[in-house]
């Protein structure tokens, strides 16, 4: 289906360009158990989808979440590539590894073979987000203590954050760690943390608590707010780039920058929609259209 209905005319310099992408969606034919998150591994050239089931095990625990492995064109390569996780698990990909955080535990898997490489237990934490780069450096968000942890081996070190701030999401992109947080006045801000440099703070408008950070490419970071269905992009210097609208709820989509594709989990239908994004969506500003 062509996307000719999309209006790519510039609005004004550095203003968000809102684009309706619904007409560009194609549904993956396989049906999943409530897919809620997708991440892309460049090294494996695969998309990993977290799907949450509804059954409970013999002990009554809801360890029913599993991970499916998809090809870049959206076809399912393997259902239940890994399983045994709870409904609160989160995913991240970096280098040749897939990382899974669940409760107070963090797993490292080979993204190609699925073999478990490492398991780290961080007692007393509640891990709700993950970030990783291609070197395998891992950060995790501990919502129990409102802190971001850097993982080195089995040791966790808390990163300094502004006083009384509450981190909501983290992402490694544009050669920096990005942290979406609320400040002491409950206002949204985007923090850029780079080794050896002072942290940079970007003030944002009102952002919902379910917002997630996405990586459209290696040079920018995206803030997706499922409440408003708006994705705003920022470059490595905290400057706003173009934004657009995505018809999705409280899920984590995945970008495939090489193919300009976006995978959006759809829990209600049990499917994953694949959007073939027009090249204009990744432009740096109206002047580049």
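^ structure tokens above, recovered residues below v
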């Amino acid at each position: 289906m062509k996307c000719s209905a999309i209006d790519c005319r510039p609005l004004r310099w550095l203003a968000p360009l809102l684009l309706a992408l619904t007409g560009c969606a194609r549904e993956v034919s396989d049906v999943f158990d409530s897919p809620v998150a997708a991440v892309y591994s460049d090294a494996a050239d695969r998309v990993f989808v977290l799907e949450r089931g509804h059954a409970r095990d013999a002990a009554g625990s809801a360890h029913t979440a599993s991970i499916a492995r998809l090809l870049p064109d959206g076809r399912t390569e393997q259902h239940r590539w890994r399983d045994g996780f709870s409904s609160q698990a989160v995913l991240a990909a970096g280098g040749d590894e897939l990382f899974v955080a669940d409760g107070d535990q963090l797993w490292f898997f080979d993204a190609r073979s699925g073999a478990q490489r490492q398991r780290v237990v961080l007692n007393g934490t509640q891990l709700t987000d993950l970030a990783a780069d291609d070197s395998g450096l891992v950060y995790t968000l501990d919502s129990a203590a409102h802190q971001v942890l850097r993982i080195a081996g089995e040791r966790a070190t808390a990163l300094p954050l502004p006083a009384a701030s509450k981190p909501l999401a983290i992402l490694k992109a544009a050669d920096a760690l990005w942290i979406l947080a609320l400040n002491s006045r409950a206002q949204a801000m985007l923090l850029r943390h780079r080794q050896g440099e002072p942290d940079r703070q970007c003030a944002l408008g009102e952002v919902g608590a379910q917002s997630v950070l996405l990586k459209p490419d290696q040079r920018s970071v995206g803030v997706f707010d499922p409440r408003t269905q708006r994705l705003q992009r920022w470059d490595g210097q905290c400057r706003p780039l173009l934004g657009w609208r995505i018809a999705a709820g409280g899920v984590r989509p995945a970008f495939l920058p090489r193919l300009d594709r976006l995978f959006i989990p759809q829990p209600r239908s049990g499917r994953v929609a694949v959007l073939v994004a027009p090249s204009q969506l990744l432009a740096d500003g109206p002047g580049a259209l």
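The chain has one domain: 32-227+252-267.
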